[in-house]
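Morning!

This is the sequence you dropped in the shared folder:
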Amino acid sequence: MREERKCTLEACVGTIESALEAEKGGADRIELCDDLIEGGTTPSFGMICMAKDLLKIDTAVMIRPRHGDFLYSDNEFEIMKKDIELCRKIGVKAVVFGILLPEGEVDMTRTKQLVEIAGKMQVCFHRAVDLCKDMSKAVCDIIECGCDRILTSGGKNKAIDGIGQIELIHSLYSEQIEIMVGSGIDKVNAERFKQIGIRHFHLSGKGEKESGMTFRKPYVSMGGISPEKEYVITQTDCAKIALVKKVLQN
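The structure's back. Tokens below.
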């Protein structure tokens, strides 16, 4: 039987400064990513090492070689294996990944291989589960693969819209695996999820910060960023993390 403990709050961050802000706000764990605008990809080795050195709380590292779907080529799978090996060797506490088959099912063969490589690290199967055609079967498959935690929005874009599915999954499987909710979690809906028994929460707590650049060249932007946003930095707001943390502690 899996014992329900106090509520835990995981902050999804894309920079080391955001990680420090999340810790300051009371996060219990960091999910460290790159490219959050695309749902998160594997952060650089340098960022992983810095997080491990600077943070007092645990870090879970996203293992995702690119944005887009979760059907990976052989080369991409090898990259995932190597990234997990690196995380294990430097003492990272957890890794986060998800691999699917073309038919919308969990790729159990590859998932089991990655769980084995992870060794004593905790393993979270992320919101790739929300893209499966049969979520209940997917959760059973993830449990069989040996994962410790599932991050889900209940098969919807926002977790609050999938609360019925999340409640069902929690009632059926929470004694076998941690069910963590994510996507649009805030101080208001966190209380609703607590009421149905959820004890594990995931959010970014994003805010915007003005760039420190004094010289700003107009009409030029990098990548897909619009020129007016070129000098605005997206960063975790410790106050937003603290507000949700307060709800979870009550």
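Headline: The chain has eight helices and ten strands.

More detail when I'm at my desk.
O.
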